[in-house]
C-alpha cells in the first residue's frame, strides 16, 4: 500500500464513528473536479507513510478509535488491500472503504471475508455523462453498474454519494441517477469545493437551494437523501 496521508482522528469520514483516515495514492479516474489532484496525478511526489507507523498508532488508540476509513485515490487498485485491512481488523476496529466502484470483484471479496463494515461509493454522474465526468473514456460501466447492484442488494452497510458541480450536473442527471439507484438505502449530495488542489480549477459550487431541489427530486427513489458541504 502506498499511503500518502493519515488523519489520526475524525468524526467526519466514517458516519457515527470516531475514526482515523488513511489516504492512498493513484486512481484510475481523472475527475476534473477532484480535490486530491496531488494524490491522483503525482502520488510519487507525496511523502510515504509506512504501514508499520500506521499500525503502531492504531494499536495505541484501538480502545479510543472505533474504525478506520480507507480512501484516496482509489484503494481497490492495490492488490495488498486485503492484507492491510486484515491487520486493522485484528485490532478490533471497523473499516470503511471509499471507492469509485471500478473493482466490484475485490469489493465482493472484502465483503465476503467480513473485512469491511461500510462502503461509500461515488456516483460520478448519470450513465450518459459518466465517462466524461470521470475523466476516463476507458472505464467499464459494466463494472460500475455491478458495484451499484452489489451494494443495493444490502450485503453491507453503505451509501452512495455524488459531488455536485454546477457545470457538470443538471436536474435531468439527478433524475437519471435516481432511476439508476432506485431502492438504495442512502445517497448523499456533496457540494463541490475548490480545495486548491483540484485537477481542473474553475468549477463552481451549487447553491444550498439547488441541492435542496435535487434532494427533493431524488427522494422518491432513495430511502434517505442527505446533503453535505453546506451550512
Describe how the helices and strands are arranged.
Layout: E1 3-10, E2 19-24, H1 37-41, H2 51-61, E3 67-71, H3 81-89, E4 94-99, H4 104-112, E5 118-122, H5 130-134, H6 141-152, E6 157-164, H7 171-180, E7 186-191, H8 208-218, E8 224-228
Could you provide a short overview of the structure?
31% of the residues lie in helices and 21% in strands. With 231 residues, the protein is α/β, with parallel strands linked by helices.
Protein traits:
single chain, 231 residues, alpha/beta, TIM Barrel, eight-stranded mixed β-sheet, globular
Q: What can you tell me about this protein's structure?
A:
The mean pLDDT is 96. This protein has a domain of 161 residues: Aldolase class I (TIM Barrel). By secondary structure, it is an alpha/beta fold. The protein has an eight-stranded mixed β-sheet with strand order 1-2-3-4-5-6-7-8, with helices on one face. It is built from eight helices and eight strands.
Q: Could you name the CATH topology of the domain at 3-163?
A: TIM Barrel
Number of helices: 8
Strand segment count: 8
Percent helix range: 25-40%
Spatially, the strands of the biggest sheet line up as 1-2-3-4-5-6-7-8
CATH class of the domain at 3-163: Alpha Beta
Q: Mean pLDDT, nearest integer?
A: 96
Amino acid at each position: 500500500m502506498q499511503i500518502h496521508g493519515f488523519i489520526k482522528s475524525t468524526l467526519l469520514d466514517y458516519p457515527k464513528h470516531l475514526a482515523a483516515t488513511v489516504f492512498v495514492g493513484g486512481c484510475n479516474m481523472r475527475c476534473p473536479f477532484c480535490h486530491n489532484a496531488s494524490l491522483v496525478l503525482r502520488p510519487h511526489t507525496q511523502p510515504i507513510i509506512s504501514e508499520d507507523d500506521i499500525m503502531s498508532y492504531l494499536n495505541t488508540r484501538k480502545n479510543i478509535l472505533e474504525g478506520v476509513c480507507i480512501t484516496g485515490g482509489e484503494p481497490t487498485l492495490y492488490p495488498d488491500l486485503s492484507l492491510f485491512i486484515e491487520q486493522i481488523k485484528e485490532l478490533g476496529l471497523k473499516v470503511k472503504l471509499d471507492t469509485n466502484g471500478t473493482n466490484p470483484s475485490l469489493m465482493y471479496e472484502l465483503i465476503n471475508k467480513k473485512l469491511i463494515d461500510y462502503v461509500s461509493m461515488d456516483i460520478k454522474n448519470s450513465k450518459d455523462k459518466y465517462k466524461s465526468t470521470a475523466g476516463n473514456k476507458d472505464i467499464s460501466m459494466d463494472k460500475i453498474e455491478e458495484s451499484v447492484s452489489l451494494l443495493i442488494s444490502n450485503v453491507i452497510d453503505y451509501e452512495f454519494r455524488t459531488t455536485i458541480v454546477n457545470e457538470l450536473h443538471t436536474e435531468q442527471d439527478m433524475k437519471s441517477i435516481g432511476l439508476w439507484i432506485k431502492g438504495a438505502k442512502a445517497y448523499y449530495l456533496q457540494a463541490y469545493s475548490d480545495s486548491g488542489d483540484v485537477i481542473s480549477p474553475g468549477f463552481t459550487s451549487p447553491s444550498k437551494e439547488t441541492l435542496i431541489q435535487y434532494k427533493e427530486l431524488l427522494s422518491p427513489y432513495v430511502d434517505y437523501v442527505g446533503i453535505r458541504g453546506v451550512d
